[in-house]
Specification:
By secondary structure, the protein is mainly α. The chain has 2 domains: about 140 residues; about 100 residues. The protein has 13 helices and no strands. Helix 4 packs parallel to helix 7 and helix 9 runs parallel beside helix 12. About 20% of the residues are buried. About 5% of the residues have low confidence.
Length: about 250
């Protein structure tokens, strides 16, 4: 298929006329082994990654084929399935532009309107670091698309909850690390500390994209839930100490 696209349009026309994309996706919905499903995801990934003709890519993404694949139930207890699936979502997000975003909206009834974002967000706290990194990349790629429908989707309460979960994830990491330090258990402190830093830098990247509804919500959650409830208690003694020193200096003068 990829070779044929470079040689003649007839290869791709045959691919479309015979609705081969739908046939490929139908296999993954059948009661097949995880190895076969992984191979299908890999095949479609290779196809999308190597197609050079923009029109051909549009045809691949059209007719809700991609959303159909994204929303197909898979065995996420299998690490290989998760790894390949998230890599596939990351690849799709890298093809998100104002021109292609229309293909990622799910127009079927009673369905999530933007499954690429909603499904990837479920893996935000996955134990595998590479999965979390991919989720952060997908999130940022979605937010960067200058599209009014994306902004509208992001402003929905159900979507904004994801950003609240991100803040609470950081809080849970801080609490966990603090408990480890207090119990003199330092084996995973470095790992958790790095994760906290990565998550905070990610939240900074989200804010830097300047999506108003997301920024307003995220700032509010950060101040109320993270800084006020957890950070202020830590820095308050130091602040009080500074105030006392200033008072002593003023009296001595």
């Amino acid at each position: 298929m990829i070779h044929g696209e470079k040689k003649s349009d007839s290869y791709f026309e045959f691919f479309l006329e015979e609705n081969i994309m739908q046939d490929i996706i139908s296999i993954i919905k059948q009661n097949r082994s995880n190895k076969i499903k992984i191979q299908i995801i890999q095949t479609i990934s290779i196809l999308i990654q190597n197609i050079k003709n923009r029109t051909s890519l549009f045809f691949i993404l059209s007719n809700n084929h991609i959303n159909d694949l994204i929303t197909t139930p898979l065995d996420f207890l299998d690490e290989d399935v998760v790894s390949q699936y998230i890599s596939f979502l990351k690849l799709l997000s890298m093809n998100l532009t104002p021109d292609t975003v229309q293909f990622f909206y799910n127009y079927t009834k009673s369905a999530d309107s933007f499954p690429l974002f909603s499904i990837c967000s479920k893996f935000y706290d996955h134990p595998e670091p590479m999965v979390r990194i991919a989720v952060r990349t997908i999130t940022l790629n979605c937010l960067k698309v200058n599209d009014k429908n994306i902004v509208k989707y992001m402003s929905q309460p159900s979507t904004l909850k994801y950003f609240k979960k991100l803040v609470y994830y950081v809080i849970s990491l801080v609490v966990t690390m603090n408990s480890m330090v207090e119990s003199n258990s330092f084996a995973r402190v470095g790992e958790i500390s790095n994760n906290i830093i990565d998550q905070l830098l990610f939240l900074q990247d989200v804010l830097n994209i300047q999506v108003p509804c997301v920024n307003d919500y995220l700032k509010d959650v950060l101040v109320k839930e993270f800084f006020t409830r957890y950070c202020y208690e830590v820095i308050q003694p130091d602040c009080n100490m500074v105030k006392m020193k200033k008072r002593k200096l003023s009296r001595s003068r």
